[in-house]
Specification:
Layout (H helix, E strand, L loop, with lengths): L12 H7 L7 E3 L5 E3 L4 H16 L15 H16 L13 E5 L6 H10 L2 E6 L2 H12 L8 E5 L17 E6 L7 H15 L17 H4 L4 H13 L6 E8 L2 H13 L4 E9 L2 E9 L3 H11 L2
Helix pairs in contact: 3-4, 8-9
Length: about 300
């Protein structure tokens, strides 16, 4: 994990249950006798997330509607800290902090986790876009319930499912970085099959006919879209070109190696001046972020001097 990620060590369940007593009901010994939770239990995962966000980020009121994505906090934090290093490279190696940094989270979700971590770890301002009205309402309620998030997170509804930036980015609005965790699957059936496979690996679904149960949740718009991860990223790259002068860095999480290959090709075709791959790992899980910019090194340094303290 990233060296600034506070979740690199094992979870301290004694401390977490002191912070959030409700978590205690889900703490059980693992096969080695250490405290843990049943990660196949959605309620336990939600309680753990609530405790982590309260202890490390000062968010006392956090929840997601039943069935909505409840993502693992350590991996989300790794993305934010790697993006911070990306910006630091254009700022003399110093991570820019405070509200001078403006971030767009494409597909913020009901959980609003990326903006929570970014605002609390670095003081950044966020815009979160979302096409699901229920998710957006939940995220807005959660932000309103936490004074530490007030004035730092602006949540906007995307009314056109084919657009990623149009209708969200306002005229003359600038962003220092765009982040995104795109839908992985190509269809509802594909998402259900993936859920069953994951369920069998975790031990709570024994047959192909078992009803898929996601320990981390997820609605259709969070799990799949036409063309899956690769199709979404292609649209994102194409639609990023008109914003080349108003966004310093675009980025997206990538799960599949083949998606990375096609992204490199398309970014070369569309004139990206630099493409970076940020490798991340959490235990045995390896993921990556692809980041691209249409501005050369001199332009990026000028941007940093103009916008960041």
């Amino acid at each position: 994990m990233h060296p600034r990620n506070p979740h690199a060590a094992r979870y301290d369940f004694a401390q977490l249950t002191d912070t959030s007593p409700e978590l205690a009901a889900f703490v059980i010994p693992n096969p080695t006798g250490d405290d843990s939770i049943d990660f196949a239990n959605p309620a336990a995962v939600k309680a753990l997330n609530r405790a982590l966000l309260k202890q490390f980020y000062g968010v006392a009121h956090w929840d997601v509607p039943a069935g909505y994505l409840c993502p693992p906090i350590p991996g989300r934090a790794d993305y934010i800290h790697n993006v911070a290093d990306l910006l630091a490279a254009d700022h003399g190696g110093v991570v820019p902090r405070d509200k001078s940094v403006h971030v767009l989270d494409v597909g913020v979700g009901a959980n609003c986790v990326y903006p929570i971590i970014g605002t609390q770890a670095y003081g950044w301002r966020f815009v979160g876009s979302e096409i699901d009205g229920v998710a957006l309402k939940a995220a807005r309620s959660m932000v309103a319930a936490n004074p530490s998030l007030a004035g730092r997170i602006d949540l906007r509804l995307q009314t056109h499912t084919d657009y990623i930036f149009e209708g969200i980015v306002k005229p003359r609005e600038e962003f220092d970085v765009v982040i995104c965790n795109p839908p992985f699957h190509t269809s509802a059936a594909d998402a259900a099959a993936g859920s069953r496979k994951k369920g069998r690996n975790l031990g709570y679904a024994k047959t192909k006919s078992a009803e898929p149960l996601l320990n981390f949740g997820g609605q259709n718009t969070e799990l799949w879209c036409e063309g899956g991860e690769e199709g979404f990223l292609k649209r994102m790259i194409t639609q990023s070109v008109p914003l080349s002068a108003r966004v310093l860095w675009f980025s997206s999480l990538i799960s599949k190696k083949e998606t990375l290959r096609s992204a490199h090709y398309l970014l070369g075709q569309d004139g990206a001046t630099e493409v970076k791959v940020l490798d991340m790992s959490q235990g045995q899980k390896v993921s990556r972020v692809v980041a691209w910019t249409f501005q050369d090194e001199a332009q990026r340094h000028t941007w940093a001097e103009r916008r960041w303290k």
